[in-house]
């Protein structure tokens, strides 16, 4: 069964304390892995797309990487405004544009 | 550019009532979808549409209907609301295998 699993469920960091979020997937024939940020009461907002193992994308303090089985979202020297839920999703290979989402990692950055 | 617009933002229904959640996009995207988001479960696909006049079921379609008469609009109908349909609902639109653009969500409570 196609699965997307994110860990940890929740992460509390001090401002400036770098860490990584994990997204593992069992979908074969990956057609794209996506990272989104979701603030409370809002819809998910797109961050990155990764298509092949070894690919990396960066945006400010965030860097996303991809292997054949998992993706990492690295957060370097986070600030309180980075506090949000981070969602990972993959395009399913057999069903048009259907995306399967992980449950998310809730990140809190304390000043 | 409004992107994806959902109405209403909040709704309380009694068990057995019906209602329609509205979704409109102004990006001329062919693919639109409806998700529900429940605590600890991530976003789950309810129904999707690959273009005007074409709809199909997602992962959790029971109790919901959709139609797509225009490229812009993709309403979701709850036929007879049940407490199990208490959730946050998100509409999204996508072009090709690109990222999904989400609306702000509708928080629905069924009592």
Would you kindly provide a written description of the structure presented here, covering whatever features stand out?
The complex is a heterodimer of chains A (111) and B (111). By secondary structure, chain A is an all-beta fold. Chain A has strands at 4-7, 10-14, 19-25, 33-38, 45-50, 56-59, 62-66, 70-75, 84-91, 99-101, 105-110. In chain A, strands 2, 4, 5, 9, 10 and 11 form a six-stranded mixed β-sheet that branches. By secondary structure, chain B is an all-beta fold. In chain B, 0% of the residues lie in helices and 53% in strands. Chain B contains no helices and eleven strands. Chain B has strands at residues 4-7, 10-13, 19-25, 31-38, 42-51, 54-57, 64-66, 76-78, 87-94, 100-102, 106-110. In chain B, the strands form two sheets. In chain B, strands 2, 4, 5, 6, 9, 10 and 11 form a seven-stranded mixed β-sheet that branches. A four-stranded antiparallel β-sheet of chain B has the order 1-3-8-7, with no helix packed on it. In chain B, strand 5 (42-51) and strand 6 (54-57) form a beta hairpin. Chain B starts with a strand and ends with a strand. The model of chain B has no long low-confidence stretch (mean pLDDT 94).
